[in-house]
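Homework help board

Subject: predicted structure for assignment chain

Our instructor gave us this sequence and asked us to write out the predicted structure in token form, then describe one feature. I got the tokens but I'm not sure how to describe them. Can anyone check?
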Amino acid sequence: MKKKYLAMVTVLVLILSIGLTGCGSSKSSKSLNGQEITFMIPEWGVPSKEMLDEFNKETGVKVTVETVSWDDIHDKVSVAGAGKKSPADVIEVDWSWVGEFTSAGWLSPVTLTQDDIKDMPSISSFTVGDKIYGIPYANDFRIGYYNTDIYQNAGLKEPNTWDDVTAQMKTIKDKGLMKYPFTLPLTAGEGTTTSLLWLTYLRDGKVFNDDNTLNKENVMKSLNFINSAVKGGLINPANASVKDVDAYRQLSNGEAAFMVGPTSYVGKVNDAANSKVVGKVQPIIPPGATGKASQTMALVEGIGVTAYSQHKEAAEAFVKWYTSKTMQTKMYDAQQAIPTRTAVLSDLINNGKIKNSGAMLETSKLIKSPFPTGVPKYYTEMSSAIFNAVNKMALGQITPEQAFDEMNTKITALAKGSK
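My token output:
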């Protein structure tokens, strides 16, 4: 009888325990209901009212969108963060801001499953140590493009190495098929910095040493390559003064035969309204040192939760929802935003929504970060040192060696000063 009584008590305790656990879970899921959060994002990332209504229906959280320019977001976050205030609960986090924002304590870490992490290779740009401070929503990794008509007329096949690129550009120019067959941003701007970074990373896999100083051997290869291409008339000298977009547009205008550039050109080269090479450009895995590159760099946009948000749980729920598979598909349909999730990109290619994708999917799986310890907090100053030195070299004002010394002196000082 005693045993029977004890058994009944045990069962009763278990039932109560399960019931309480269930209530606790229910309370947690309902705790977001009625909360309101703000979302600061550039125009290109604004979700539709219908999308926001869906999130509100799912969670009970109301989201107010503040559409702010990319540059202004950075400034607003900096000003608010200095005063230990939140500019918004969820904000745009560009990959290049991660080091600055995390070192200042302006972002709150978010949690993701291992499956989600594996599905988004560009998450590496938002990872510091073992913590994730943002989730990428719009992809822009570097991929190769070549004009198949020009290559066929020149008797060439797609390049596998950067030595191939040099030889092929000379052949195309010598045959009179194009005056400036290769294009690359060389102006005093951010696009020139990232060009030097990805060019070095694609070929050698290492831009920075473990102490965040420049790897001289590898960076010098890139500087010498660029200098030779400019002096050899393979790159339009106007690239040293035109905007990045104008340098890239030379491919869609039929003025360049090869480039490594933004993922968006997979679609742009086949946009009949703005392209003169529809059906004539093939996206490929970029060249490397001795064969195809085994890594590429992404210049990706993400969103994160601000450290001073009063609604962190609701904000994180929104961040995860906004970057989910379903939403990335919808955002591609609405805004043509290239998804950061491999699974979504694969679906869009397989169902024909992304056409003439070439090696787009394969290249997306090669995304890694060139920064050994994460994007440094002094990235803006470092970028300025790089693009100014490269631009002066492109204009013939300094040699590759002088360009390296100029940027290296500044970057070494920045790296040492950040310790």
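Reply (TA_rk): Your tokens look well-formed. For the description, you could write something like this. The first helix runs from residue 2 to 30. That's the kind of observation they're looking for.
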